[in-house]
Amino acid sequence: MNDYGSFPTQPLPIRRRGRGTVDPAELKGVGGGAGIARAGRQMAVAGVVSRATGFVRTIVLAAVLGTAAVGDAYNGANNMPNMLYELLLGSVLASAVIPLLARARRNGRRRSREFTQRVLVAAVLVLAAVTVLTVVGAPVIVRLFVVDTEQRRLATVLAYLLLPQIFFYGVSVLVGAVLNVRDSFAAAAWAPVVNNVIVLLTCGIFVLLPGPVTLTPASMTTAQILAIGIGTTVGIVGQTAWVVIALRRNGFAWSWRVRPLPYTWRPVRSGLPILGWLLIYAAISQVGVAVTMRIAFDHGGVSIYTYAELLFQVPYGILAASVLTVLMPRISRAAALGDHRAVIADLARGARYLSTVLLPVTMAMCLLGPGFAALVFTGRVDAEAARLIGTAVACSAFGLAPFALVMLQMRVFYAYNDTRTPTLINVVMVVTKVSILVLAATVLPDHAVIVMIGVASSFAYLLGALTGHILLRRRYGPLGFTAVATTVHRVMWATAFAGAACLAATTLTRSVIGPPTVEQLAVLATGAAAGCVVFLLAARAIGIPEIRVARALLTRP
């Protein structure tokens, strides 16, 4: 055991002693790869349950609220705190705070605990102020997005009820960062399940309430508005309570005995060099959010875009987020010790693992996404909306791997307390997305513009990943991406074989089975099964060590 706790300072590379052969050290946990995979496996289990319950929640909300004016008003209002979380708090705040906490741990347990207490107190005060200002400005924010008078009225009331989530999202992210620095990952990963269950119960209450048969912004009752708005926010409160309890069980007692001033100024002062660029990052992100939401509202596609984006995020949340969450404390500790080789090694390792799991998923989303959306959403929303959701997922799937890669790259910059470079990368991504959306809104019909919202995001992720790679290489020299390129090349060949098998299986199934619902289910089942089997066989034949590492760990008792 060394400065990393259970991880070696110099992670051992995968040594290929033949086609597809893996160094036994990595399977035994001596190398960093097995440690990442084990911790990632625990998070992946939580991620599967979280995304599964979240998907059920999405389906139920779509069935209850629809994809018309009421659904758009709810999703638009709910997307305001959600997008702030995803774009700012979910990745930027946690990634920027973890290096500060990791460096504080080098000063001893007592000082680290004291510093963490002060960070939490300062953050709670700032979050409370930001949340109050945002809630007060709810009418102005909604007016930027919504033109229709009745829909704007409903969206404004819902915004008052939903925007307080910002505070609880922020506390949840900060407490999760403290847990990650303390090498506790699984507890925070289970928190969204609490939120999903509460929202599902809220939908049940909403259905039982008396109200109109056809929901419109003008016909919704006050009880229905309060139920769906308050219930959704209570879900985030429950999620936050879960991680706070987990932190206490981890041995960290959150004490408010720390005087807010002047003691909280010290962590604020240590974070001031990075705070300015974080605020610029947030402002740039909100420009992108504002343009996206306005175009989505103008073309009647807020709910369709929201549900397609949720489907896009499912594989990222299950397969990629777990790897990134485990890697961030490792990278931060290595950066704090000045061990640049370890940082680069983890960057390359993360890129290999992400490519291995996300490239085949991208192919699956392209081929099976429309059928899956039609099977799940048809009958709960109108057929045209279900078709658009599936089309948006399939067309934007190519951005999945670049999205994960750019998130990994930003974590490397944040590990060195560099918030300027991620902000510049974000400028590139937002400008790319906004440019594509404005052009699409000018020349394309409504249904095509809705699909292009996701496509524009994926192009932005792709350009962001290329920009991040160039900037990392200029700063740190060779990044060890020769091995990454080799892995990607092999995975692409295996994915191509799997895609051909999936396409053949789905085509054959459609020609044999008649009833539409049975056909859709059979097509998805046979296509997924054929693709998985062929991919694993091709991976074995071609030699993709990362697959063998994951399989060995998953099958170990």
What does this structure look like?
The protein has 557 residues and is mostly helical. It contains 19 helices and no strands. The chain is globular and about 65 Å long. The model is unreliable at 1-34 and 552-557 (pLDDT under 50).
Which shape, going by the Cα principal axes? globular
Rg is 23 Å
Beta-strand share of residues: under 5%
Number of strands: 0
Helix proportion of residues, in percent?
A: over 70%
| Span of the ends, CA to CA | 24 Å
SS summary, helix count: 19
Secondary-structure element order, as H and E? Answer: HHHHHHHHHHHHHHHHHHH
Mean model confidence by pLDDT: 80
Topology:
Layout: H1 24-28, H2 32-65, H3 69-104, H4 109-136, H5 138-145, H6 149-162, H7 165-181, H8 186-208, H9 222-249, H10 265-298, H11 302-336, H12 340-377, H13 383-396, H14 400-415, H15 420-443, H16 446-476, H17 481-512, H18 516-542, H19 545-555
Helix pairs in contact: 2-8, 2-11, 2-12, 2-19, 3-6, 3-7, 3-10, 3-11, 3-14, 4-7, 4-10, 5-6, 6-9, 7-9, 8-9, 10-15, 11-12, 11-13, 11-14, 11-16, 12-13, 12-14, 12-17, 12-18, 13-16, 14-16, 15-16, 17-18
Task: Please sum up the structure shown.
82% of the residues lie in helices and 0% in strands. It is mainly alpha-helical. The longest helix has 38 residues, at 340-377.
